[in-house]
Structure formats: C-alpha cells, structure tokens
C-alpha cells in the first residue's frame, strides 16, 4: 500500500467569499465530516498547513498583485486586479486565507518530493483560474501553479497536470504555456458556452512547448460515458508519450448534472470512476506519484461531500462501495442545516459508468472534440490522430 497524505485544517474554512457566494467553505467541512463518519480517515494523521510565504507566491504571481491582495480589505472596492467583483469579492484576511490554501497544496507537494508520501490530497486546493496579476473565477492565488513550479525545482523534470473541473484550467495553462516540462490537460464544458471562454482544442502551447497544452472542450449535457470516452481517447496516450514523473490533478466536481453553475451531466459515480482512473494512470506512468486537489463544485450537500469523500478514499486505497449508506449522524447534520435540500442516501447516484471507446465505429456528440483535440496535438507527439490504437 502506498503511503498517502491528507492535508486538512479547519483554518482552511477561512477562504470564505461571504454572503450567498457559491464558493462556500461548508462544502469542505461537510466532506471531512462525511469521510470521518465513514471511517475513511481512521488512523490518518491529517497534515496541518502553514501559509505560503511571499517567495513561494512569487512563483505564480507578481509583487504588485500580492500587494493589491494585502491592501484590498483596507482599500475597499477600487483595487483592480480582478478584486472586488461579484466573482471575487474582497474579504477580511484575504491574503492570509489565500496563502494558506497555497501552503496546503505546497505541503502535499513537499511530502511527495521527499518521498514521505506517494500520494497526497488537498480538497481545499485547486484554485486554477488565478492569473499572475489578477484574481479570476473565485480564485485569488493559484495553488496549482505554485506547487508545479516548486516541483520543477525539487526533483521533477516532467509534470503532468490533468484538470477535470467543468471550467477550463486557464490559469495553470497560462502559467506553463511555453514550458515544455509541464503537460497541461483540461477536460471542460465548451468555452463557447461557459466561463472562462478559453480552452479550445487549438490552444496547444507555444515555442518549444507546442503540444503540451491540451484541451478537450465537451458539449453541454455530456454524461459519464461521453466524458470517459473523450478522456480515454486522449489522455492515456499523451501521458505514455510524455513520460511524466508526477501527476497533479485538479478534481473539481462542478461537472455534476445538478451543479447550479454549469451544464455537464456527470454523476458521483462518474467522479469516483475518474479518480480511480487517475490513480491507475499514476501507477502506470509516474511510479504512483499523484497529487490531487479540489476545485469547483457548488451543489454543497448532494454532490461535493460524496464525490470528494470518494477522492480521499481513492487516494488512501480505501475505496468506498457505491451502495454504502450515508451515516445517520451526517444526514442529521445536513438536514438540520439545509432542511429543504433533497439528501441522497448512499454514496452513489445509481449510474452506469460504462463507456464505448472512441474508434468503435459509432458517432457520438463528443467525437467532434475528440477529433479536434487529437488532430491538434497528437502529431506533435509523434502519434497518429486518426488511429484508435494511438
């Protein structure tokens, strides 16, 4: 069994955009409670993070931007840099709370770099939209970019980043768009239909890094089978060719059918299958080294706690059977907190996650994305875009 690390501290609940903002930290608390009551965390020492320092934050952000984040709670709303908008409202202790999120992903990365763990998970991370000099999409600092930058200076020459959030992983792509050492792969709802409006198949990287940015824009209403068809048509072949030493995955769960902010149609069962697939790919290509972070997910009761409990369990090799009943104590807590929310009863949505592999002679709606992405990227890796065996 691989040694695995779980990073968590209640202080991470301080990344709170306030009011009725959809990025509500209660989703983290409910996840940890569910994982605890199901016994997933039995005997696991949770790692307590420290805030990232300025030197670490400068890996992904400008000094001017850091100063704006620090000053924003004092300066009010007119601070620029994407701060003080409906998506990214200013909140007290914004710099400190955001730096703690980065520090939590950095702690996970350090455990992998030192060999103390082969896998690590930080559900509070995954703030993949933050850019070098501005906040975006609920994200102030980009923990993914900071951690990848650090890994490249601490024993890793080739990092694969796979983003399964419903939104394009634009901040991470931008950070490494011209860096051939980082393969960024994002599967997301088509940018013509969803924020941030980027992530077309034609975005493939620049200079020596051409071919290392990979985007699979999926049509709205794509279900588990279509999502998995697209994933398997593109990602395993590229990982095999790229030969990464570590896999970093952003595991947003806003791709779920009932998520209020987007239009894909995955299930909790689909999410569980994605995590198991990522674990298998890490076993095959990176010696098992896998750093998993959270991300989006805005159905706070029915989706996020179950899906991310499956993620934590998968990282720990404590896989949860889909038909596992939800603990009565957890359900009581949820029903008291959200009495009008329909609550699930098991760790499953009862979905079939089988899929037909691309190249089977059928024509599915996701096949346009598959063909466009393979034709944009595969030749740059010496792969045949039209051959299902590649």
Characterise this structure.
- The chain has 11 helices and 7 strands.
- With 390 residues, it is an alpha/beta fold.
- Strands 1-2-7-6-3-4-5 form a 7-stranded parallel beta sheet, sandwiched between helices.
- Helix 6 links the parallel strand 3 and strand 4.
- Helix 1 crosses helix 9, helix 4 runs parallel beside helix 5 and helix 7 runs parallel beside helix 8.
- The longest helix has 20 residues.
- The radius of gyration is 20 Å and the shape is globular.
- The mean pLDDT is 97.
Proportion in β-strands: 5-15%
**What's the helical proportion of residues?**
25-40%
Q: The biggest beta sheet, please?
A: 7 strands, parallel
Distance separating the two termini = 31 Å
- The helix tally amounts to 11
CATH C-level = Alpha Beta
What's the total count of β strands? 7
Average predicted confidence as pLDDT? 97
CATH architecture designation: 3-Layer(aba) Sandwich
CATH superfamily: Histone deacetylase domain
* Element pattern in H and E: EHHHHEHEHEEHEHEHHH
Q: Runs with pLDDT <50, length 5+?
A: none
CATH topology: the name is Arginase, Chain A
Apparent shape: globular
The whole-angstrom Rg is 20 Å
> How are strands sequenced across the largest beta sheet?
1-2-7-6-3-4-5
Would you summarize the structure shown here?
The chain has eleven helices and seven strands. The chain is α/β, with parallel strands linked by helices.
């Amino acid at each position: 069994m691989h040694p695995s690390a779980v990073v968590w501290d209640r202080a991470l609940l301080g990344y709170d955009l306030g009011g009725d903002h959809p990025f509500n930290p209660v989703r983290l608390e409910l996840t940890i409670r569910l994982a605890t009551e199901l016994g997933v965390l039995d005997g696991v020492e949770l790692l307590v993070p420290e805030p990232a320092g300025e030197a670490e934050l400068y890996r992904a952000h400008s000094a001017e931007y850091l100063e704006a984040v620090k000053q924003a709670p004092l300066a009010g709303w007119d601070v620029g840099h994407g701060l003080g908008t409906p998506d990214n409202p200013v909140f007290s202790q914004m710099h400190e709370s955001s730096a703690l999120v980065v520090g939590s992903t950095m702690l996970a990365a350090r455990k992998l770099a030192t060999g103390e763990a082969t896998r690590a998970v930080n559900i509070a991370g995954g703030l993949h939209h933050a850019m070098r000099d501005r906040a975006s999409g609920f994200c102030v600092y980009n923990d993914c970019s900071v951690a990848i930058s650090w890994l490249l200076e601490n024993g890793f020459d080739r990092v694969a980043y796979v983003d399964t959030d419903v939104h394009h992983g634009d901040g991470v792509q931008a950070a490494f768009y011209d860096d051939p050492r980082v393969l960024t792969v994002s599967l997301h709802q088509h940018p013509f239909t969803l924020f941030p409006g980027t992530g077309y198949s034609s975005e493939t990287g620049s200079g020596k890094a051409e071919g290392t940015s990979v985007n699979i824009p999926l049509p709205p209403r794509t279900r588990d089978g279509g999502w998995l068809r697209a994933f398997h048509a593109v990602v395993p072949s590229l990982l095999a060719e790229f030969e990464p030493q570590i896999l970093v995955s952003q595991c947003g769960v806003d791709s779920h059918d009932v998520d209020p902010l987007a239009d894909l149609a995955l299930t909790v069962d689909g999410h569980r299958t994605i995590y198991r697939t990522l674990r298998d790919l890490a076993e095959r290509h990176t010696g098992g080294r896998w750093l998993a972070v959270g991300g989006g997910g805005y159905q706070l009761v029915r989706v996020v706690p179950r899906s991310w409990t499956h993620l934590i369990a998968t990282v720990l090799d404590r896989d949860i059977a889909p038909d596992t009943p939800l603990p009565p104590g957890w359900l009581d807590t949820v029903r008291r907190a959200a009495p009008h929310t329909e609550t699930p009863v098991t760790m499953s949505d009862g979905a079939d996650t089988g899929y037909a592999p691309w190249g089977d002679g059928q024509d599915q709606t996701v096949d346009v994305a598959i063909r466009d992405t393979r034709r944009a990227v595969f030749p740059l890796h010496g792969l045949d875009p039209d051959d299902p065996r590649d």
